[in-house]
Structures are given as structure tokens and as C-alpha cells.
Design a protein that fits this description.
With 471 residues, the chain is an alpha/beta fold. The chain is built from 15 helices and eleven strands. Strand 1, helix 5 and strand 2 form a beta-alpha-beta unit. Helix 1 runs antiparallel to helix 4 and helix 3 packs antiparallel against helix 4. The two termini are 36 Å apart. The relative contact order is 0.07.
């Protein structure tokens, strides 16, 4: 289904819901008589003319106020608010019209109910549309092919946002750089397609690219203008991302200082107040799930002890917030001498960057394969959460040898407390490349909210149950 068809279906659906809303309002007023009884009964057919007039007025206000113009990345609440304002404007115009025409019959309470029901129905329909489109985008359908120009901090910010938010409907096919970038071999599965001078050739070879994000430092005005001209020549939609001192917009706040507009920059990462809130949420959830967790822990511990010789738990050194090392607990899922065998298995590593992953790791025990696939091996880390060394949600704490191989921008993921689960675990887990993992972690840090943590925790459940991308 094309985007034009989606818009057409949206408009037709809204018109249908407007009529349904008016019909329900009539039932509430004349059949069910909520809150106020009627002095006389009017048949529904007498209201058909007013219903048609209201629908025409709503079509006018909806089109004028941009209700049918979809804005990528807009919050559902903002979209519902626009529906509310446009519906209120249409109802208001209808009330003014009836004042001059004075139709018979006329019920102000009926139009009040029509307003409430139409706003509720269309807002819920928008929520359903968002869910359906997000599902299609995640499956690679209907997403726009996009190209990013720039691989510095601004370019990586764009790529990690598009990677973390597939619901925006963009599929990043690659990036171009200035020839001086350190990221000249690609960022994960996002390939390097060349330098800026190759833009015209890329657009000619891939006519399906309709979106280009220009993410360059502000001082490169001439380069930006040249790239914009190339995009216009090929009828490609170009969007320039302002660097704003290479900051995420979530860290920039507009302040009116006695008529002088200023930009206030908030501290990077999660603030002290947010850390306290996050900590309280962690402790509350652990307390709520303490009894079933203890039962599952006891069963797994017994199974490990029966299955293979060795300790139940494995304690390994990990790097936490600001580079501080700590001992992270896990259920033992491998044979006792797993670390010694790792040297002979390095040639079979299926991960990139500093990570080591094998889908069929021979060191795994029978119980270990199951608890790895379902992520139950991570349960003992609740103890690390209780000690404040970890959180339920956050970037995965790395090994010291992994950190030693980090590039400069990779270290941004160490600016907050690590977590048991995180954004990359619910976005592909072990199927992601290391650079993609880092891009998602940094996006999480810059866009943290309680709602985001709850969403990740809820999405972790099916990912753990079905073991998608886990090994």
C-alpha cells in the first residue's frame, strides 16, 4: 500500500468515524438520554441535513489545520491535540451557522456529545494507525530509503535515531563522508558509500532514494549548499540537520531572557533527579517480583548443579559507569574452563568489533543453551541492581578488553549505569553489529524517560521468551 493510499484510507476512515460519532451522539441524546431527559423526541432523519453540514465543516477545519498531514516522529498526544482543536473549530462553526439559520430541530447537547465522541474515535484510530505502520516499518515494508551525508557526531546522531525509531519509516541505505572521517569502513550494517562527491552517482544508481539527511557542521555552508543543489536536481527530498554545537535537540532548551532568545544546554546523559527516579523504579519492580524470581532462581540453580560440574554462578569483571570495574553475576551457562577454550575459538567469532559471539558455541552446557536463549542466565544480575552497580535498563556492561578497543565515540555508552536489558536487546540482540549497538545505546542515553524504560522492559519479555537474536 502506497503512502497516497494510506492518506486516502485515513481520510475515508475519518469521514466514517465522524458519521458514527454523530449517530452515537444522537443515541445518547434522544434514545439513552444521558444526564438530561428530553422534552420532545426528534427522529434521526430530521438531523441528516445538520449532520451533512457538520461533516463538510469538519473536512474544512481538518484540511486547514493539517490533521491529514502526517508528521514523522510526532507524538500521538500532539496528533490527538490537533484532532481536538480541528473538531472543536468545526463544531464551533456549526454552532455559529445554526445561530443564523435556526434549524428545527437543534440540540446543543447533541453537538457536545458529537464533539467528544468524534475526538475519541479519531484519536484511537490514529493510535491504531501508528501501531500498524510501525509493524510494517519494522518488517521493512513502506519504509523510505534514506541516505545520510556526514559520519561525524551529527551524522551518527541521525543514524542512531533512525535505527532506534523504525516507526519513523526510514531505512538507512548508507552514508557519505568528507574523506577525513575515521568511520570509513561503515557503521555496522550501514555501509560507507563513498565521499560527498559520489552523491550524484548514488542517486542515479538508486532511484528509490527519496530522502537525504545532510548532517554536517554548520561552518560547511558551501558544501551544504552544493549537496542541496544536487538533491534538488534529482528531485530528492533533502533535510538539513543543524548541529547546534553537535548536541541532541533533547538537550537544547529555548529560553526567553527579557525578550532575548537564548539556547540553554542541559547536561548530557541522565540527570541526578532522573537517576533517583530510575533507581526507585528498579527497586520497586524487584520488590514486586521478588517471590517468583527467587523460585525461578532456585530451580535454575538446581538444574545447573545436576547438569554439569562446577559452580552455579559465574562472576566476571565488567566496566560500569565512567569506566569503573565491578563484578557482574550470571548463572554459569558454560563449562568450567570456558575462558581457556576461548582462545582456540576466536577464529569462529561471528560478531564484529571487540565483541565475541558464536551461535553454536561448543562451550555451552545443556542447561546453558536454554538459559542463554531465554536470557534467564541474567537473573543473578538483580543482585548487582540492588547494589547500585547496574540498572534494569541501560547499556550492556562491557568486558575490559572490549573497552580497550573502543573508538572515542563508543565510550559515550559508559556515561550511565549499565543495564540487564536495553534498547539494542529489543532491537535485534546479537544480530546487531557493534556499531549499531553503540548507536542505540547512545540514543537511549540522550532520550531517556520512564516511558522508554517501561517500553523496553515490556518488549524484553517476548524477546526473551522466543529467544530472537540470542546466542
Amino acid at each position: 500500500m502506497s503512502k497516497r493510499k494510506i492518506r486516502f484510507v485515513t481520510i475515508v476512515g475519518d469521514l466514517f468515524l465522524m458519521n458514527v460519532g454523530f449517530a452515537l451522539a444522537y443515541l445518547i441524546r434522544y434514545q439513552w438520554q444521558w444526564f438530561r431527559s428530553i422534552a420532545f423526541y426528534e427522529p434521526y432523519t430530521d438531523y441528516l441535513g445538520q449532520q451533512a453540514a457538520l461533516i463538510l465543516l469538519l473536512v474544512f477545519t481538518y484540511s486547514q489545520m493539517g490533521v491529514w498531514q502526517r508528521r514523522r516522529g510526532e507524538a500521538w498526544l500532539d496528533e490527538a491535540t490537533r484532532v481536538l482543536y480541528a473538531t472543536a473549530a468545526g463544531i464551533g462553526l456549526m454552532v455559529v451557522l445554526t445561530f443564523f439559520v435556526q434549524p428545527t430541530p437543534f440540540s446543543r447537547l447533541l453537538f457536545f456529545w458529537a464533539f467528544v465522541i468524534i475526538v475519541a474515535l479519531i484519536s484511537l484510530a490514529r493510535l491504531l494507525r501508528r501501531w500498524l505502520l510501525s509493524l510494517l516499518y519494522r518488517r521493512g515494508k513502506l519504509a523510505d530509503r534514506a541516505l545520510v551525508l556526514g559520519s561525524g557526531e551529527v551524522g551518527r546522531s541521525v543514524m542512531r535515531t533512525l535505527l532506534a525509531r523504525p516507526d519513523l519509516g526510514f531505512q538507512v541505505i548508507g552514508y557519505l563522508h568528507d574523506g577525513r572521517s575515521e568511520n570509513n569502513i561503515g557503521l555496522g550494517r550501514i555501509p560507507n558509500l563513498g565521499v560527498f562527491d559520489d552523491l550524484e552517482g548514488v542517486l542515479q544508481s538508486d532511484p528509490l532514494v527519496h530522502n537525504v539527511f545532510i548532517a554536517l557542521p554548520g561552518e560547511q555552508h558551501q558544501e551544504i549548499a552544493r549537496l542541496l543543489q544536487t538533491c534538488q536536481t534529482h528531485n530528492v527530498r533533502a533535510q538539513v540537520v543543524p548541529d547546534l554545537l553537535q548536541l541532541s535537540m533533547n538537550r537544547v532548551e529555548m529560553i526567553n531572557m527579557a525578550g532575548i532568545p537564548t539556547l540553554r544546554v542541559r547536561e548530557a546523559g541522565i540527570s541526578r533527579g532522573q537517576q533517583i527516579t530510575k533507581r526507585l523504579m528498579d527497586l520497586s519492580i524487584i520488590l514486586l517480583l521478588s517471590v517468583p524470581t527467587l523460585i525461578v532462581t532456585a530451580v535454575i540453580a538446581l538444574a545447573i548443579k545436576i547438569d554439569s560440574p562446577g559452580p552455579v554462578f559465574y562472576a566476571g569483571i565488567r566496566i560500569g559507569k565512567d569506566g569503573r570495574p565491578f563484578q557482574m553475576l550470571k548463572f554459569r551457562s558454560m563449562v568450567v574452563d570456558a575462558e581457556a577454550q576461548k582462545v582456540t575459538l576466536l577464529a569462529f567469532n561471528q560478531a564484529d568489533g571487540p565483541l565475541f559471539k558464536m551461535k553454536d558455541d561448543p562451550r555451552l552446557t545443556r542447561v546453558g543453551k536454554f538459559i542463554r536463549r531465554t536470557s534467564l542466565d541474567e537473573l543473578p544480575q538483580l543482585y548487582n541492581v540492588l547494589r547500585g552497580q547496574m540498572s534494569l535498563v541501560g547499556p550492556r556492561p562491557p568486558l575490559p578488553e572490549e573497552v580497550a578497543q573502543y573508538k572515542g565515540w563508543h565510550k559515550q555508552r559508559l556515561s550511565v549505569i549499565g543495564g540487564i536489558t536495553g534498547l539494542w536487546q529489543v532491537s535485534g540482540r546479537s544480530d546487531l553489529t557493534f556499531d549499531e549497538l553503540c548507536l542505540l545505546d547512545i540514543y537511549y542515553i540522550e532520550n531517556w524517560s520512564l516511558g522508554l524504560d517501561f517500553r523496553i522492559l515490556l518488549q524484553t519479555i517476548p524477546h526473551a521468551l522466543f529467544g530472537k537474536g540470542a546466542y
